[in-house]
Amino acid sequence: MAHYNCMLIDLDNTLLDFDAAEASAIAATLAHFELPGDAQTIAEYRAINEKLWREFERGSIKKERLLTLRFSKLLNHLGRQGSPAKINDYYLGELAKGAQILPGADEFLADVEDYVTVGIITNGAQKAQMGRLEASGIGAFADGVFISEKLGVAKPDKRFVNIALEKLGVSNRKKVLVVGDSLAADIKCGAAAGLDTCWCNFREQENDTGIQPTYTVRGFEELKTVILEQEELDHVGEKKKYQL
């Protein structure tokens, strides 16, 4: 039997290339609203956005406020007028088209889906994430998709994964693995819930956070060996999902 039979896996920069989707979406948005689209402006937006998302993860700002405040701050930086709400709505529509799959992600999901229950977990905006899941085809591998604004709680709050497991009908928590690229959101969330965790360190970053994952992997082939036993690795696709 698989080492784990339920995997809660993050979406952005774990399965889908958020950076590529963001770059395309923000460029299209700035052009649409006739705002400067130079590298310095895009870098400023990313800095503003990143800071606000970290505040969101700490629980110090609501997502609805975050989504418009980032563009309000950008407009102030540029000394321009505009509607942050309208800009954000357009941006999310563009972001929803971002179907870039990280290399190997779809093959990985195809190999493990017969052995594990797959829950995709994300703090991202629902409008964008559902569009990206559909456009990429990644959503077809999931037994459930869990988005913070729909659950009413966000990673790293342990209630996020607890609600996801309840909705999936998973009771054996020892066989659950939380997977993601963010130590502060994904790994901290899983650990807080008493679950095993796997940090997808695809960019080979240093971990100076004090947050310790159960496993660290640098690619999907390595992740597969964490989840499946050797016999299953030798016969991927030949067996049906185990009962939880």
From TrEMBL:
InterPro entries: HAD-like_sf, HAD-SF_hydro_IA, HAD-SF_hydro_IA_YjjG/PynA, HAD_sf, PGP-like_dom2, Pyrimidine_5'-ntase_YjjG. Pfam families: Hydrolase. One of its GO terms (molecular function) is 5'-nucleotidase activity. It comes from the Bacteria. This is Noncanonical pyrimidine nucleotidase, YjjG family.
